[in-house]
User: Fold this.
Amino acid sequence: MDETKTYPPFLVNQRIKANSLYYAGKMGSIFYVNLRDNETIVGVHCPKCNKNFWPPRLSCTKCFSELTETVEIGPYGTVETFTQVNYAEPVHPRKAPFVYGVIKLDGADGGITHFIDEVDIGEIAIGMRVKPVFAKDKKGIILDIKYFKPI
Amino acid sequence: MIKTTEEQISIPMVVNVPYEFAAGEYLTRGLSELRDNGKFYAVKCPKCQRVQLPPRIVCAVCHVKNDAWVELGQEGTLVGFTIMFIPMTDPTTGKPHEPPFAYGSVRLDGATSVLDHFLHVEPDMEKIWVGMRFKLVLRPKAERIGDLSDVMYFEPLPGQKRPGRTN
Amino acid sequence: MKRNVAIIGGGQTYHAARRHDVDQAEMVNEAVRRALDDAGLTIDEIDLVLLGNMEFFEGMHMTDCWLVHGTGAYGRPGLKITTGGTVGATIVCAGAHHVASGLFDRVLCIGFEKQEEGDTGAILSGVASPLWGRSMAGAAVGYFAMLATSYMAAWGAKEEHSAMVAVKARQNARKNKYAHLKIDLKMEDVMNSKMLAYPIKLHDMCPASNGACAVILADEKTAKKRCKKPVWIRAMDTAHNEQFELDWRDVKTKRPIFSKVSSSRIYKKLGVTKPSEYFDVFEVYEPATWSELLWYEDLGICGPGEGFKLIEKGMTNIDGPIPVNPSGGVLSTNCIGASAMLRVWEAALQIRGDAEEHQVPKDVRRALTTAYGGTNWTVITALSKSLDE
Assistant:
């Protein structure tokens, strides 16, 4: 073998495609069924911390109590922060430009990340009041809420 | 009004990720030689004499730099095998290999490491044995990409008889 | 060990083919709550949470972050470890190191897998090197099949010997209320089951289970004060392998391979000369029946090539002189991220005398467990009833 021979860098292109199926579990199922069938947003109440969590869960993140009390939260909320995405990425759920925001739903401690639409980026402000717009065809997924829009 | 439910919600999603791996200095040479010249190159450790395939900068056992290149023969000895009854898909092409088929590990002459690949032999336990001699069959140059799949299969050398065994 | 470490409690889920009723956090939470209950601790007394699972088997990265409400890790120091199939034991090893170091006193170790959620076939292909072999990767079954043909050719063992291991495992599992495959398996059922890759048949391989296991490790002071039956971790050892050479697939190899290196090092640490006499029970990680025979040999329970004779004579049965896998082993329950931890926890249950129906009928004072990861590495753990033995 010619020891002095050089080679251009060798690059290998491959792809991994994985199909997943996530089970929402006890609390998650209650959330998605109510979203799909009643247009109701469900959170869970921790009596020890006196807080309502979204997403609803069986254990309190903070005090680890077992939680059973589901509560209705929202549907209105307040924009806590937001941004506009201007570049395209294959994984994006929408074509840029689009607006993401974190919305603190009335009655919940903690926010939900979702799209904000039917408003120009220049008109959105922290503290703005918004409400969800539901999809006609609901499937029991978070996009059963299409986006939030100003009230 | 919150409704309770017995339904067990599940949400399907697909994660589809492209990768680009750099082969590095040693494998660049190894895979380029396979693609362009149909040759298998390994490296030999100056300390323990292991002939390492795939070729790597350091001996995995001694951690000493390896820079002695060795061209391996295209024949080897079968050291382990099975007959697959379940289909196997090449993840890089998506094409399935229909069962039953023989699959095994061959140690090329001169190498310490082994290569796993299809064995081009009747999938019959009586017709395959550890110690059987095989040779590599490569794809034509135009089809090679510098990957182990450039080897189509291992072909048994002609005229071999299974050594006498009582069981 | 710089400081002594004990297992002061543990818990597991009822492992199953399907857990559609819970999400990942809820499933993990079941094991965590049982472990805390068993140890008599509250989550506030835990000072470190370690979580392990097989990377991306749930189709979700950073499970340590997303499952915080299930693991109780909020606000606490924590680490995530992924080492393939051996992770359950790696977590216990890491936990033990953290306690032994003096930096932490009560560590919650969690291993889990909710395999039904991910695409294990696609992800497993990612285990193979992309540059060398991914296109030719022949599933786990192919690997164990080659191991089996090598074993049969080298020592004259028969497919029946594999069936004996399969029967022992599932019959033991029937006595373990948490096990996944509790089936009244007979030799004919195994021999007639579907051939996957010669000679491995369906019942020779482990299932894909959904489940979690949690154990709580503590320092000596906490263990002696709070726990009635602490189980002491006396030594651990782990070893990696070289990926492109034969190890278990060449059963006569003289190379120092992961299983032999680890076991000889741990025996040296403990002064063990006859493991079958030193340890009262073994819990080994056997994804396929044949690997259990190799563990018998590589652990020195018998000599090379004698593993199949051991099972033939019933020596490793639950009521035999050298019980191996009274829990039913990985062959009966394989929630990958938890499997290796289950070996440690089941061995601890044996030492405590808490294994209920699958308790081995002898005085168990010392146990040895092994783990196994897909690229051939292991964590071997030695446990004892008291610090004096």
